[in-house]
Fold these 2 entries.
Entry 1:
Amino acid sequence: MKTATSISGGMTSAYLSANYPTEYLVFSLIRTSDTNCKFKDRGIAKIVEERINKPFVGTLEDDIIIRTILDLEQFLGRKIIWLSGITYDELNKEKYGGYLPSVLRRYCTTELKLRPIFNWWYKNIKEPIEMNIGFRANEKSRADRMMSKTNEQGLSVFKSTFEKGRTGRNKWVTKAWQKPNFPLIRDFIYKEDINKFWKGKNVKFAKLNNCIGCFHRSSALLKEMSEIHPEKFDWFVNQENLGKGTWKETVSYQKIKDLNFTPKLNFKADSEGCSSGYCGF
Ligand code: SF4
């Protein structure tokens, strides 16, 4: 079986790529078309465009993620396959009735991270592939959750469409495509081991991964994000202002932005968020 690692820009998946070599390294970039979130170094933006074969205005993650993936390629001495699906703007406008994703409707991970990887697999690999996932030794429950959704052969199943049928409707294909593999759980690798490994190495990581306004984050952390990344946070505020739902059930992002305090946060304790295995490891 062919092997791949899903790289997110976080230390953990980077550790996987460095210590558990696989035939393919794939990275799916979350993009926005909002020029207020423009990636400033247009020379590097051009490199990104060549990699993903799509326009790159900016990302809704920390801009450092671009540097991380480029650094990682240098560190590993090999190319990473850069992928990107539709922009987050298109996703919110055109899919799922225009309603925003949330903790209960977490389709953004599926559409922006997982689908581009599946589509790459469908066009290029076409047979089940073993995918290294960066769950750590203390995250067995996450791995168990992922495995509970696999079929009798232990393969994850995904549904996608690539063309229209004669009636003009989407033609759907359902494929058992990947066998999740959790080397860090098997080898008892914890966060401390990973931090130690990257110390002094020439790969720059963002303090936090995931989208700046990810709804998995606490209101206190989001408030901090609104101050560190005001333009990107405003993108999330503006999406709510379009009137198609809210990211969180109990509080709007405008309210979070307007909170009258700046908490001092423990990023580590507060940053786990999405448990899909594709965002932010
Ligand atoms: S980081 Fe959060 S908001 Fe971004 S795609 Fe993942 S779950 Fe969605």
Entry 2:
Amino acid sequence: MRCERCGMELMGGRGAYHWRSEVAAIGDDVLSSTEIDLDLEKYRRRLFEELSAMDPEEIENDVYQLWEGVLCRPCRLELGKLLARFLR
Ligand SMILES: [Zn+2]
């Protein structure tokens, strides 16, 4: 078994951590709003332009993404420090 981030060999799973992270969009979908005004129209046009430039996988990943894998202890600690910067 190896750390999927740095490649460190983890003999028999010793010092290995299973990492799982789920990121999902939670904001209201502006496209479903029935309120129409100029700003909303501008926003819609820009959103459609952005979406048409993205491939379907990119759009799906923008809304929901699951990352999981095996990490070694040093990578687990590094990831923990990184997340602690904005998660309390
Ligand atoms: Zn590692």
